[in-house]
Amino acid sequence: MLEAAPLLTVEGLAKHYQLDGGHTLKAVDGVDLHIGRGETLGLVGESGCGKSTVGKTILRLVEPSRGSVQLDGVEITGLSYAALRQQRRNMQVIFQDPYASLNPKMKAGAIVAEPFINYGLFAPRERTERVADLFARVGLRPDQMDRYPHEFSGGQRQRLGIARALALEPKLVIGDEPVSALDVSVQAQVINLMVRLQEELGLSYLFIAHDLAVVRHISDRIAVMYLGRIVEMAGTEALFETPSHPYTRMLLASVPSADARRGDRRRTVLRGEPPSPLAPPPGCPFHTRCPDAMERCRIELPKPRQMAPGHMAACHLIP
After folding, report:
1. DSSP states of the chain as a string?
2. What is the pLDDT, as a whole number, of residue 290?
3. Does residue 28 contact residue 11 with C-beta atoms inside 8 Å?
4. Pairing status of strand 229-235 against strand 311-314
5. Shortest CA distance to 58 belongs to which of 104, 18, 91?
6. How far apart are the C-alpha atoms of 69 and 34, rounded to whole Å?
7. The dihedral of CA 127, 79, 38, 206: what is its sign?
8. Which of 97, 75, 98, 99 is nearest to 87 (CA)?
9. pLDDT at site 2
10. Which of 1-10, 68-77, 186-195, 286-295 bottoms out in mean pLDDT, i.e. has the lowest?
11. Which of 191, 197, 239, 279 might form a disulfide with 234, Cβ 3.0–4.6 angstroms?
12. What is the DSSP string of 49-73?
């Protein structure tokens, strides 16, 4: 039986910014990834590694410098504005800040109904009914439709953002740090809501975050980014149990744990700061912080290597 084609396929994606003085900032520099139907891919890494830029470039909120983005077999990067506008019904985003992403002058019901109005969908009465259904689906009451964003808690505002993202029945939802601005108890509620909605609606997620515990809970697979590149990608449990790239091992070691069996792993501490993307080091971008770096690492950029089916890492130390 043939495997179904991925919903999203990204190949060689790059976003370079040309700055004054002839400098080039390589925010994303050759990213390959895919997301299956109904799958969640977690994308993790330190601040400034390019995670959010990947998400925005896939959506073409930021135009890519090069590369291919295919959603359900349609090449996104070459679409005209009109064609892209229609394709955006299939891909939506949940933003990090649930307050800044909502218009404070609009009532909650109008915010969730706005996608229907933008695309000329449904008569006014049916729009109201659909908004009420969306409110109920994300755990809000229909009588809250007449409230303004400032009258909601942070978790409720993020539920509003989720309802708005679901309005057009997308296939792919990109969550750009969607719970990082919320209290820990509220984070769990929103994550559980996203998991339930995925099961009910068959959604695919690209879940961008820096909290590895959250990513582990929601993701089927995880991709680890460093300085604009993916350095490791694997199934969630495989990544946590048998990390291959030194950067991945150090990231995992930095997560607090009460598990005494992790004692040896926790001795390897992530040290120093990432190099500037304006002046990335030659060779492996991680060699300036890697305790096991050898001369080859300082000269040659490592290519991705497959250790097991579905598990790859880009490191010269991998045999």
Report:
1. -PPPPPSEEEEEEEEEEE-GGG-EEEEEEEEEEEE-TT-EEEEE-STTSSHHHHHHHHTTSS--SEEEEEETTEESTT--HHHHHHHGGGEEEE-S-TTTTS-TTS-HHHHHHHHHHHTT-S-HHHHHHHHHHHHHHTT--GGGTTS-GGGS-HHHHHHHHHHHHHTT--SEEEEESTTTTS-HHHHHHHHHHHHHHHHHHT-EEEEE-S-HHHHHHH-SEEEEEETTEEEEEEEHHHHHHS--SHHHHHHHHTS----GGGHHHHTS---S-PPPTTSPPSSSTTTTT-TT--GGGGTSPPPEEEEETTEEEE-TT--
2. 92
3. no
4. antiparallel
5. 91
6. 10
7. negative
8. 75
9. 47
10. 1-10
11. 239
12. SSHHHHHHHHTTSS--SEEEEEETT
In this predicted structure, the answer to whether residue 263 has a pLDDT above a threshold of 90 is no
CA distance 27 to 277: 7
- Written as one letter, the residue type at 194 is M
C-alpha–C-alpha distance, residues 238 and 219, integer Å: 12
DSSP 163-199: HHHHTT--SEEEEESTTTTS-HHHHHHHHHHHHHHHH
Structure tokens given for 130: 């659909």
Least confident residue range of 180-184, 197-201, 313-317: 180-184
